[in-house]
Specification:
Helix content is 44%, strand content 18%. By secondary structure, it is an alpha/beta fold. The protein folds into two domains: 4-114, no CATH class; 134-266, Rossmann fold (3-Layer(aba) Sandwich), CATH 3.40.50.150.
């Protein structure tokens, strides 16, 4: 027996399976042109600032972003089914449906309902009510906001050490200032990836939180694998690194396999992260339960977090 969430999800998947890419694309263009013009322009400006998913130029009828989504839906609908079946609670399943239906039908209502407004981002107390003696690695620490939220959620006594990785030097300095009252925090101006060496990154003119690793980046940063940089056992990993999460996971394979750390992973920085990242984790260590939580707005899905908890 199925329920209304199952029914909605599989009806959507059935449409992805039966229609061709161009038909899926046309549906998105049609739905987009029927939302308020102020919302259309707002989305165009957003995608200009954060060009992760494709182009949207209304005046030129350039809807590349919708074609890219349609292609992913058609070629990977079975991957979304795999993810749906892996998710351990119906809140997660509903979030996945709401995200996909927003992409495809510009459904703002379900996405708004899926947004978590109770807990701090990443730290859902229904999933992780207590923490003790944690060794935490915050990859993409930004200004230390996640660590502050963690301490607010679980107290200063809940961890033994915190490692903060941030690629932008002046942003890391801000994090050090914000976290100055807390002990046992190690700051690392390094990129976590699948190689030890030098990488380059670009700065985003709108927000330093979106600075990202890029082959043509104008700034250099030392790159390390987590496996080589931290010898001790790790119990929590958080990653929000603007599309470089898969490389960081590959560089953390030994820790993930041997330590089975609790993980909080951003899965929205490109069109396939939503299923590719959980499949990558699954290939490394099958001893995880998977949950989705959503902390973004109701117009376009960002701040999607995959929570991986040891079984």
């Amino acid at each position: 027996m199925s329920n209304f969430i199952d029914n909605k999800f599989y009806k959507l998947i059935d449409e992805f399976e039966k229609k061709d890419i161009y038909s899926l694309y046309l549906n998105m263009v049609n739905k987009f042109t029927h939302i308020p013009s102020i919302t259309q322009v707002s989305l165009q400006k957003y995608f200009e600032k954060y060009p992760y998913w494709g182009k949207l130029i209304i005046a030129e009828n350039n809807y590349e972003i919708f074609y890219q989504k349609a292609k992913v839906f058609k070629e990977n609908y079975s991957q979304f089914v795999w993810l749906y079946k892996q998710l351990k609670d119906y809140k997660s399943k509903y979030i996945l449906y709401a995200i996909l239906n927003n992409f495809y039908n510009f459904d703002f209502d379900n996405l708004k309902s899926a947004t978590d407004t109770i807990y701090k981002q990443y730290f859902d107390l229904d999933l992780l009510p207590k923490c003790k003696n944690e060794v935490i690695v915050d990859i993409g620490a930004y200004v230390g906001d996640t660590i502050i939220d963690y301490i607010d959620s679980y107290s200063q006594e809940s961890y033994s050490k915190i490692y903060c990785y941030e690629i932008t030097p002046n942003i890391l300095q801000i994090a050090e200032g914000n976290l100055a009252n807390f002990d046992n925090i190690v700051y690392k101006n390094k990129a976590v990836s699948d190689i030890n060496g030098i990488l380059h990154f670009d700065t985003n003119s709108y927000s330093a939180s979106a600075n990202n690793i890029s082959e043509n980046g104008t700034h250099e940063v030392e790159s390390v694998t987590l496996d080589s940089d931290i010898p001790e056992k790790i119990s929590i990993i958080k990653m929000d690194i603007e599309g470089a999460e898969k490389q960081a996971i590959l560089g953390s394979k030994t820790h993930i396999k041997n330590d089975t750390p609790k993980m909080f992973l951003s899965v929205y920085h490109n069109n396939t992260d939503l299923f590719e990242i959980p499949k990558l984790v699954y290939s490394i260590n099958k001893n995880y339960d998977y949950y989705l939580r959503y902390y973004g707005g109701c117009i376009y899905p960002t701040e999607i977090v995959l929570i991986c908890l040891p079984k």
